[in-house]
Amino acid sequence: MDLQLAEELLALETDDEFPEAEDPTPDGYTLDTYLLLTVIDGLQGVQAAVIAAAGADPPQVKPMPRPVTALDKVREERRLRSLQDLIGVFSAQPPDDTPDGTAEQEVSEVRRV
What backbone phi and psi angles, to 5 degrees, belong to 112? Predict the structure, then answer.
């Protein structure tokens, strides 16, 4: 409610910059918060059902974001890195041609396997 502070914060913002949405933290997450988020998710489902019953395409129901701990973030980062490594194994680029033609021979052997 401090007008001077609000003006200073507004001066720091630019029109083309939007703060990146961060996952909520468990700080302040209580049973009341959990129950309210559950009610919101349920109401979104009811709204989608009413729209579908009217014959229109219902919106995609996305649950409200839940708190994420640092442990969850690190665990997800490791999982994604592991999947990227696995994708890298199966989508490796063939080596460049060498003057003696051994690279072409190695690639053809790998393709036969």
Answer: -70, -35
